[in-house]
Amino acid sequence: MVAGVPVAIMGMGLPAYAYEGTFSSYIDDAVTGFESRWWQDNNSTNDDTIVTFKGCRVNNNSTGGADAGIALRWARPYLPDGEGSTVVLNCYDSDNYHWADPAATNYRFRLKTINGSDSGRILDVETVGVSW
What we know:
Elements: E1 9-12, E2 22-30, E3 39-41, E4 49-58, E5 67-74, E6 82-83, E7 87-90, E8 94-99, E9 105-114, E10 123-131
Antiparallel strand pairs: 1-2, 2-10, 3-9, 4-8, 4-10, 5-6, 5-7, 5-9
């Protein structure tokens, strides 16, 4: 926490798998509005973009369900980022979402909801996986 405000941290992992690119990470103390790091999809493999959340916890509660609403965002030169609709990952155990072969550009995801709410909750995710 910084001055009583939760600070989200996203750690970085090492690439794996046979996609154009991939990273694994984690999220600590995120609130809605949190954004992942950017990744560059050159569309050289025509793979889906897949985001996986495993081991979600809300407000540091180790029991009970947890879900996270995320939206894929993309860079648009000289314009605000584009944003798709929100998808919900039921990620107390593990869940993922596949975006079918999006166009070549830079992407990130934004946390839109935590357990259905757009404010007042804090999310931890043990493992975040992104591949494209």
